[in-house]
Amino acid sequence: MTTDNSSTTLPTKSLGTLGATPAIGLGLMGMSALYGPADRDESIATIHAALDAGVTLLDTGDLYGMGHNELLVQEALRGRDREAVTLSVKYGALRGPDGSWLGFDASPAATKTWLAYSLQRLGTDHVDIYRPARLDPSVPIEDTVGAIAEMVEAGYVRHIGLSEVGSETIRRAHAVHPIGDLQIEYSLVSRGIEGDILDTCRELGIGITAYGVLSRGLISGHYDASRTGADDFRSHTPRFQGDNLDRNLALVEALRAVADELGVTVAQAAIAWVGSRGDDIVPVVGARTRERLTETLGAATVTLDEQQLVAIEAAVPADEVAGTRYAEAQMATLDSERL
C-alpha cells in the first residue's frame, strides 16, 4: 500500500461524458434526511472544506428533506465559483407532508417540473448531472431520457445520469442520449454491480458514481447501534437488525484487523477498495462532518496492491453479508436488482 501526501490535489478519475473528475465525491443526503438530526452549520462547513480540498462533485436530490438539501447547497455555494462545482441531482420521488413515500414520477412533464423547482432551490441556471432517482415503471425510460435531453438542448442540464437501473434499461436510455454516469450502490458488502451492469457501462463508456461505499456507516468502523434512533432509516433495514447486525459487525472487525496492518482506518480501507475497482468508478461518500470528511479524503491517496486487495476481500466475503441493503418494499423498486 502507498499513500501520496505530496499534494492536497486529489487524484482524478474519468467519469463518462464528464471526463476528468476528482476521485472522491461528497454525498449530501445525510445532511438533510434519513440519518437523524444533522447540524446545519457543520454541514455547510463540511461542504466548504470538501470544496477547498479539491472535491468538485456534490450529490444531492430534491427528495432529501423535501427540498431542504438543495436549499442547503444554495447556501453553501453562495459566493463560490459555480463553474468549479459539479452538481449531481436526483429527482422523482413523491412525498407526503408527513414525509411518507407516495410513489415515483419520471414522466416528461414531471421531469421538467422537478427540474424547474430544483433550479430555483439551488439558485443556479443549470445542473451538471440530472437523473431520475429510480426507474419509473409506468414510463418508458426513452420518454424520461428524452425529456432530460430536451433540457440539455435548452441549457438547463449538462449531462444525463441514471440511478439503480439494470443493463437493459441502460442500453435503452443510452440509445436516446449519451449517459454520463450510473449512480449505484457499490461496496465490499454490496457487489451486485459486478458482472453484467458494470460490463455494460464500460462497453458504452458510462462512468460509475458509487454510493453506499460504507454501507450507510455499517462498515465505517464507527457504527454505534445505540445512537440509531427511530427516525434513522437504518433501524428498518435488514442489515442493521438483530442477528444480521451482529454477523455484519463481526466482518467489520475482521476488516479492522486488515486495516490496522495497512496503517489506515476501516473506512479508508473500504473506500480505497471501491476506488481500486477502476478508473471509471468515483466513490461518493456521505461525510456529514469535517472529521469524517478528513478521514474520507485520506482514502483517495491510498493505493492497494493485489495482496492487500485479496486480504480485504477475504476479511469481508460478499456471500457472508447478512441481510439485504434495503427493506423488501424498497428492494422491489430497484431495476438494478431484477434478474
UniProtKB/TrEMBL annotation:
<dbReference type="Pfam" id="PF00248">
    <property type="entry name" value="Aldo_ket_red"/>
</dbReference>
<keyword id="KW-0560">Oxidoreductase</keyword>
<dbReference type="InterPro" id="IPR050791">
    <property type="entry name" value="Aldo-Keto_reductase"/>
</dbReference>
<dbReference type="InterPro" id="IPR036812">
    <property type="entry name" value="NAD(P)_OxRdtase_dom_sf"/>
</dbReference>
<protein>
    <submittedName>
        <fullName>Aldo/keto reductase</fullName>
    </submittedName>
</protein>
<dbReference type="InterPro" id="IPR023210">
    <property type="entry name" value="NADP_OxRdtase_dom"/>
</dbReference>
<dbReference type="GO" id="GO:0016491">
    <property type="term" value="F:oxidoreductase activity"/>
</dbReference>
<dbReference type="GO" id="GO:0005737">
    <property type="term" value="C:cytoplasm"/>
</dbReference>
<feature type="domain" description="NADP-dependent oxidoreductase">
    <location>
        <begin position="23"/>
        <end position="315"/>
    </location>
</feature>
